[in-house]
Each structure stands twice: as structure tokens, then as C-alpha cells.
Amino acid sequence: MEVFQGLYAFIWRDNRANNCNTYFIGGSKKIIVDPGYSNLFTHVDTRLARIPVKVDEIDVVIATHGHPDHFEAAALFPDTARFAMGRDEYRLLKEMLGKYMEIPEPDFFLHEGDVTIGDETFQIIPTPGHTPGEISIYWPDKKTLFTGDVVFRESIGRTDLPGGDGKQLKESIKKLALLDVEYLLPGHGEVISGKDAVEKNFKMIEQAWFSYLG
User: Fold this and answer.
1) What is the DSSP letter of 160?
2) Is 65 helix (H, G, I), strand (E, B) or coil?
3) What is this structure's pTM?
């Protein structure tokens, strides 16, 4: 699915696999956001080939947070691709899962504020709640927001997993709702397109979920 020129969404619709959405940003640097599970990477590989882009052409792989369904396949990219995620999330991930699975070591960490990759500048926004160190990524020039597992279409991320916190998630959602967004790209489910649709989604979430979050 081409969201707009230079941005593709690989939407996962097979709930039995419990995989996440993956996003490809093409430009002077080729970027993957949330590559998914290693054993299901064919889903991403085949869709890249349709663009066409080869896996070994990817420059940067970003994980919004440290759940395996979002980051695990980062280990499948060649060394020429640089892997990035939040520092706090990586530390927690190593503590909790380092004994049980191989965790790719980031080449650089993403901190709050602007990060420039190639010709594009993104804003990194700490959005804890689903996990303690999750980040969302705002692309101001395109009014595009990658929300990981913070916000979905008509729903929100779970808070019952280790490190989840409903009050933090509520504050993260409030923060994201203030941004000027025309494309909301969640970690699971459908892309939300159009400023009005994005605003309505945030409003619905406030009405339906905020009392539950505490």
C-alpha cells in the first residue's frame, strides 16, 4: 500500500500471526520502521520487492519499542543497515529478554527531539505507557505520525504487559493529539488518512478509553 509518494505501508491482516505493520520510507536514505518477527519476514521482503527495493539497500531500521513482533527481524538486515531504537527501551529489553533471545544491538539511539536521516528530519517523541521506553515518530514535512503501539484506529496499546502504565499511556496520547497530523500510521491495524479522520480518532479514544486508563 502506497500511502503517498515515498511512503509505503505493509499492513498485516492475518491475526493468527500477530505481526505488526511495517513501514518503508524511500528517499536519499531508505528506512524501515518496525520490521516485525524474524520468522514472518517474508511478508516484508516480498512487499519491498514489489516497489522494488532489496533488503540490502535499506540504510536504517527503526524499532518503536522492544516487543519482538516489532524489532526481531532487525537482525536479518545486513551490517550496512543501521539499527536504532530508544536507549531506555533497549536497556529494559536486555534486562528482561537478553537471556532468552538474541537482541540486535543498536548502532545509535533515538532521543527526544529532531533526528535527520538523509534529506528528512523526524521528531522523536517519548510515548511511554505500552512499554516504558516506547517512542513515536513525527515527520513534520509530511504531517505523518508513526505511533507504534500507542494509538490505533479506534483503540490503544495494551497496558497489562510488563512495564505497561495506563496513566503514562493517557499522557502520551494527549501529547500526540496536539500534533498536526494528516496520516496516522499505527503498529497494528489500518492507516488513518486525513486530518479530520485523525482528529476524530483521537477524540473517540479520549471518550472511550481515558476513564479506563485512570
Assistant:
1) S
2) coil
3) 0.96
What's 2-213's CATH class? Answer: alpha beta
Per-residue cell: 208: 472511550
Give 50's Cβ-side CA count (13 Å radius).
12
Question: Between the CA of residue 111 and those of 91, 115, 146, 183, 206, what are the distances in Å?
Answer: 14, 8, 15, 23, 27
In sequence order, which residues have a C-beta less than 8 Å from that of residue 90 and are 6 or more positions away?
66, 103, 105, 106, 109, 133
pLDDT tens column, 26-84: 999 999 999 999 999 999 999 999 999 999 999 999 999 999 999 999 999 999 999 99
Element (H, E) at 197: helix 195-213
Alpha-carbon distance of 52 to 63, in angstroms, equals 22
How many Å is the Cα radius of gyration of the chain?
16
The C-alpha cell 527531539 sits at 113
Domain boundaries, the chain: 2-213
